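Two proteins, back to back. First:
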Amino acid sequence: MLQSEKELMEIQLKERRECTVRVGGYCMKPEILDGAEITIRSVPAGEMNPGEIAAYFVGANLFVHRLIAKGAATLTMRADNLRPDLHEVPAGAVLGRVVGIKNPSFLERTAKKIRRRLKILKTK
């Protein structure tokens, strides 16, 4: 994610607005698919409950993982799929909760796979 995109997201969420972003990866499959558009609502980390999906930054990278447990200063997060290791996130790093998920359609996912394979064939 570009620094300007990160800053824009943080501004929108600080003003208590929702923001929608496209995410990539497979760590939250099957609930959130690669290429999904998610909507994040600004919520203090202390108001989140285990089982909810939280969005947070680590450096310039946006992560979307499930809240497993919360302490006073840190939250324990876990991906649903790949490498479901638990990891600690400072409560201040949490942007908010995911309140909307629009996964790509079967056709969009298939077209992406075809484009990826054609790109591989062109490089060979």
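And the second protein:
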Amino acid sequence: MLERGPVMKEVAVVKKFAVVALFAFAVLFVPRTVSADEINQATKVTFSQPVQIPGQTLPPGTYIFELANSGSGRDLVRIFNADQTQVIATIFTTATTRRDLNPKTEVTLAEQGDGQPQAVFSWFFLDNTTGREFIYPKQTYEQLARAKHDTFPEGD
């Protein structure tokens, strides 16, 4: 059996040190992993009254809003039931901005009057100044854009 000389032992120690140093670098300097909720911005939203979205009215309840991962970009928002077993709607949106970061998700509802439910106008994921504005037919959009808006924070 061959015995390791002092040079071989030194090489082995250097290799072990290099592996440990590489591991430490990876732990300290690699950005944290982004969770699925941050990628698709999945948000639980609860409405106590019916609300309108493009094409339909949602009854009171809890829904999950998330960005769809589509080849056409990030312009689609999917709305699921509370346990995400059913897609309620897939809606075209456009990017919109707000002035300040908010640590909570915000949903903006537009008043419609005449006993109509409020309409979901925009949605911002927490800590983002860019959100999604829901696309309605032109005449409806113009009315909603002029209407009184109420913004509601979601989450804790």
